[in-house]
Amino acid sequence: MLGLARLAVHLLPAAWLFAWADRPIRRLRRFAGEETEWVAWAVDHVGSHRRIAALCLPRALAAHAMLRRRGIASRLCLGVARNGGEISAHAWIEVGDKKIVGGDEAVAFTRLAAFGAAK
After folding, report:
1. So what's the pLDDT on residue 53?
2. Which of 14, 45, 85, 104 is the most exposed place for a label (fewest CB within 10 A)?
3. 93 forms bridges with which residues in the sheet?
4. Domain that holds residue 96
């Protein structure tokens, strides 16, 4: 899924990606236990390999797709931060109040947009 997300970021317009991420979930499982941690671990583990080295947006898209496929409602969030004179952007995934993918870095960023089931 991470490979597909990386291709999608490079080949598809951003409007298409975020429209896909904002679609309503078809089937919703209310009680998702440790599956969210497994998805986060898998995306972070594969994305940190030297050959893949996926940035935050492909990781967030892959995790969002994997959670949707399991019936777990998630939000893909985009944020910005100012560091001196530079502006940086970040993408992360939230499930409920918990930030699971890219959440450690997300503390320093102000959320500008959220796409997904529970806004």
Report:
1. 65
2. 85
3. 76, 101
4. 2-116
Check residue 91 and give its pLDDT: 92
| HEC assignment per residue over 43-96 | HHHHHCCCCCCCCHHHHHHHHHHHHHHCCCCCEEEEEEEEECCEEEEEEEEEEC
* pTM of the predicted protein model: 0.82
Pull the structure tokens for residue 10: 């490079």
Question: For the domain that residue 24 is a member of, what is the CATH number?
Answer: 3.30.460
- What are the structure tokens assigned to 27, written together? 């089937």
Alpha carbon distance, N-terminus to C-terminus of the chain: 24
Which residue shows structure tokens 């935050």? 56
Q: What angle do CA 29, 91, 119 make, to 5 degrees?
A: 45
Q: How many structural domains comprise the chain?
A: 1
- Identity of residue 35: E
- Count of residues for the chain? 119
- Write out residues in the chain with pLDDT < 70, as ranges: 30-33, 49-53, 118-119
